[in-house]
Amino acid sequence: MLSxxxxxxxxxxxxxxxxxxxxxxxxxxxxxxLAAHPELYAxxxxxxxxxxxxxxxxxxxNPELADKPVIIGGGKRGVVSTACYIARINGVRSAMPMFKxxxxxxxxVVIKPDMEKYARVGREVRQMMQALTPLVQPISIDxxxxxxxxxxxxxxxxxxxxxxxxxxxxxxxxxITVSVGLSYCKFLAKVASDLNKPRGFSVIGxxxxxxxLADKPVxxxxxxxKAFAAVLERDGVxxxxxxxxxxxAELMRRYGTMGDRLYHLARGEDDRAVDxxxxxxxxxxxxxxxxxxxxxxxxxxxxxxxxxxxxxxxxKSGIAGRTVVxxxxxxxxxxxxxxxxxxxxxxxADRIFATGRELLSRETDGTLYRLIGxxxxxxxxxxxxxxxxLVDRQADKRAKAxxxxxILRGKFGRAAVETGYTFGKGRNxxxxxxVDD
Length: 437
What we know:
Elements: E1 11-12, E2 34-35, E3 45-50, H1 53-61, E4 70-73, E5 80-83, H2 85-89, H3 98-104, E6 109-111, H4 115-130, E7 136-140, E8 143-147, H5 152-155, H6 159-173, E9 178-183, H7 186-193, E10 201-203, H8 209-214, H9 226-234, H10 240-244, H11 248-255, H12 257-266, E11 282-293, H13 296-317, E12 319-330, E13 335-346, H14 349-361, E14 369-381, H15 395-412, E15 434-436
Parallel strand pairs: 4-6, 9-10
Antiparallel strand pairs: 1-2, 3-8, 3-9, 4-5, 7-8, 11-14, 11-15, 12-13, 12-14
Helix pairs in contact: 11-12, 13-14
């Protein structure tokens, strides 16, 4: 009998049985979901991505949605946060304007995002990841890199099997599915996780990296978006294989530091380690309006509500930010960002709002906006946040009042106390489709 440890024979992703021969179905349970690859048991760097995460959570919580197309997003003026795979088959894509999504899939069920619920489920998945290895680098609420090197003795099986067991466990215990990408570097692990969604398990080995990448579009490389892809297109560069045939010096001469990135990633060279200490760069909240708005009377209450959301998250996380960033998107989708650095880090809604309002005052010139957002960057811990203000004597009183409001909201909910900016404004101050980063 052939060895059951032969990676070319692999294992069953459903019952985890290692196969004694190459076959189309598991020799134990008959499942066609087999994982096999020459480097299967030698690789330990993975990217895990939850499948259509927001929609999957909603379907889990409402079984009646199981066979229906589901779109998570705002009203007619909003955009698609995510869509289930049934909706995607009908042409719906993330970030698509909602009206286009409903044109493509008019029978879809549209659900407003519940970010608190998604964050809670995301934390459950992350805790399960951290039980596999301490080297977990979250990328977003629903995806992360893992390095399982050196964990085979701990788990009694190679990383590939550990990851397959993890995927099965998430599906059973949390009720959603994940896709796994396994490779020797972060770039290709991320690429692999996208190959066979949903419930995917894909492997890209080092020996095949060059040939695998050769016929892929340049947009597969991190950092090559539509704008840069257009630059490469003008230079006649469409595939990664073309980049593989170009010299590093030529690429750097044409595209600067991005050229160096193109040179290495086109060859599957990526030496970045899984960074456990990677910190968030900013905390923000934004919303898209159902109708374009231009006046301060309409925009200021929304800005206040969003500032309170950002402040709440900062306080819960024990962090503060020194730079306040205002984001506006015009009715013709042009983006405006304005920022101001404060003398000291803040986590107070009062300071975030006051700074954002001052930045906004210069932009309320009659321009119609479809989106507004507020956030803070230059994050640090909150130990030095909001020291006593010797100039503004009322600042300390406002900070104490905000603390009292936080206590009341913690007990009775956000709607228990409102400021004069938002009180009585209803949906204008608390519009649907609040999106958190």
